[in-house]
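User: two proteins, same treatment. go.

Assistant:
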Amino acid sequence: MKLMRLIDNFIDGSWQSPDSSNRAPNINPADTRETIAEAPLSTSVDVEEAVKAAERAFPGWRATPAPKRGHLLYRVQRKMEERRNELAEALTREEGKTLAESLGEVQRAINVVEFFAAESRRIIGETIPSEFPNNFCYTVREPVGPLALITPWNFPVAIPMWKLAPAIACGNTVVLKPASLTPLSAALIAEIFNECDTPAGVLNIVYGSGRNVGEPLVAHPSIKGVSFTGSNDVGAGLYGTGAARGIKCQCEMGGKNPIIVLDDADLDLAVNSAVQGAYGSTGQRCTATSRAVVVDSIADAFVERVEERVNALVVGNGLEPETDVGPSVDKQQLETVLDFINIGQEEGAQLITGGKLLATEMHKHGFFIEPSLFDHVTSDMRIAQEEIFGPVLSVLRVPDTTTALSVANDVRYGLTASIYTRDISKALTFTDKLQVGIVHVNSPTVGGEAHVPFGGMKATGVGLREMGREAIAFFTELKVVYWDYTGSDRKGNLY
């Protein structure tokens, strides 16, 4: 067992003891006998100190030329590469996903930092032709100000970095509130920025609950914008608070993502995609494949092959190389998944395999559940409508292509979807009519690239997209400049 780490808040360039002596243990979900770290249960006093630090740092960081801000991110990128294995192991120990998945997440974060380091040279406006002679019209992008970044536990390295990197590149200072379940990843991020000579106050981290840290942070009058990733209930509340204050708000929330398998699909490819999307990361990602919408003529074969694959998955500690599926992140999430499995059965869905708590010798000290597969699920069932955030796949059988599209869209969420077909006309039709922010053709619902925008429609998200060049729009304010060089009073309608 490794020694437990005592984590403090990171404020104004140094580790600072919290206002309260209360702390929360950081438990390994694969082995609850191991306490990895303890993190503060901070108060509004700590929030105030962090926001003040961000305020003090903002004028100087705003005035720093954007390419020099990019130089900082390049240093961070190199330091993350040096500490890649350490970051991945810490991630697996506190969140549960397999080491291979953690290494992939860390690489995603590295790619994001690299991209926004380069984008620091392209925070550009544009010149716009004026309808008047001798008038120069153009736009510039300026930093928003001190920002609140609130991030979830399921991607505790990648998601903080895809908010931090563009925010810092654009000249903002930030207060990060990471998820309470994964404090160690955030602490390592703070270490890396600190080792790279980040000016004091540019990055601040305050640990604690949503009520005691998140809410006062978003409500603070000096915070000029908030970027949130998490549940719909929390996101809606934060968005309401931010909107009432007139600040910029960005909320990425839930998903109920379908893989649509038409009768001409490459069935083996679709099965592999469904298993990867549904059970990878223990189903604990907003892009997870939660529904398989399958045309009747191939549904029996699809279910049979998925069942075979699911039964072969190895559930265990993510640090073990043979593990395919890790634990739920904590007891509460485990119980939520078990509750949904019971609900599915009560509603009449057929549980094909899985659904039980694992309590063998290798599993008894962790939050492990069998990967689960439901068949004959209908759209009116809760397991077809609500986000489960666990290793559960529901198969919805449909008679034809038209019904498949209707069923795929029949949820409140709209993050991502996959369509499996060999027919280019059908693929383009689904691409056009699916009510989601991200469409995959013959590839899984999960995944994305650092330079490509990320986000969804409907109840999945509000505000501007994350990642890619689109992120710059959220982390900057657009200013329009009219420059008259006639040297005299202008005659005409200036609206």
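Protein 2:
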Amino acid sequence: MSTLSELVKKHGPTTSQDLEWFHLLLADWQIVADMLFADLVLWVPNPAGEFVAAAHARPSSAATIFYRDISGEAPRKQWETLIRDAFTSGSSANLKGPDSFEGIQVRLAAVPIRRPVSTKSQEITPNPVAVVTVHNNVSEGREPSKLQINYRDCGQALLEMIADGSYPDFSNPTGPKRGAPRVNDGLIRLDVDGEVLFASPNALSAFNRLGVSGELVGRSLSESVTSTLKTKMRVDESLSLVVTGRAPWRADLDSKNLTLSVRAIPLRRNGERYGAIVLCRDVTELRRQERELITKDATIREIHHRVKNNLQTVASLLRIQSRRTESAEAKESLEQAMRRVSAIALVHDTLSTGLNQDVNFDEVFDRVMMLASEVASSHGTSVRNLIDGKFGMLKSEIATPLAVALTEIVTNAVEHGLAERSGVVHINAERKAKQLGITISDNGKGLVDGKVGQGLGTQIIRTLIEGELRGSIRWFSPTEGGTRVVIDIPL
């Protein structure tokens, strides 16, 4: 199924500003569909003057008319006439009498869509850029309740604002909307002074649980909330603008046992605010889960930090011990152990500064090469390191053994391949979707008799690469001299 952008670019002669406005509208039009108990369809014109359905919203407050998405389809003949009238005249048009769709009696209305000329301008485009149709199921002949009447009044107010380009507002909150209030969660209607004209049962219950006693209708929502929260130390700075309906923002109301997310939608006519809609939702459990995740994340990072510090302490003790040891063999063994511990500490240091458990291994490997430089200086060797390609982000369970293995390989190249001579260590990383290929080569004296050593370092490398990482490793001496190590690791 094609996306809104794809459909608009394919069919409509629309500008990037039009497309931006459509995306902004679609982010908020579910609210309108729920208030009107109706399906909404966005129609965009193509260069031939025909209309194509670009998006569709089903109401969560009523049964849908369209059981299948009609995006990408052309309107029915009867609909097209109504859509064209609204688009041409620039005013809303209603179909005379009910329409029938798959045996369902439907009341149909078409509303033109206008938009601001730019984000910094209050000027509205003189001509509509698209049309939205409203499909109401009228087959059920029930007398509407007070809640339904108020919901529809609010929905009609938003349709009028869509027609004059004042809804949605560019200052509406964008980005992640975790816990964003929905119509059925609770709705309050305010007049221009912030006094409550209507409160849905869910909204009244939510504010009662917050600590607001009694009815809300006829009272100032701002004063009711302020009296409840007057003893609270922490209050959202935007709260006063939200509960008075002056700004289209969201804020949280926190009490001892409840967190209520509220969002205001100012109602405007001819540029003047005459009231507002306030949506509310109990997000106590969501906020509790978020706090738990934050706490767990901070705890994990603190653990990585402490592990890094402890490993660095161990490395320092090994370094001190190697300096006090007179045996050359023991000194070398302690230094090797120190480098291995330091390589593991580098990974934990990186994990302690990030927000996830993935490691930017390029940063880690740069520090691994610094360890190799220390080895070179202690052996009187001048080594130039060349790194090609990118390792990218790796999971911590891959990064730790890989860091130790590469430290061991590069150290061997410096200590043995380039012993007492200058040379180059070349590392090439080739990252694919499910494979990481690494080649380490030097221009040293190569493998002795073409055979790989069987020392502790080689055993460690094989265990880490082939055992823990389930990869493969090969050593060989190319004809041009030196040593080359090829590693393949599945990701």
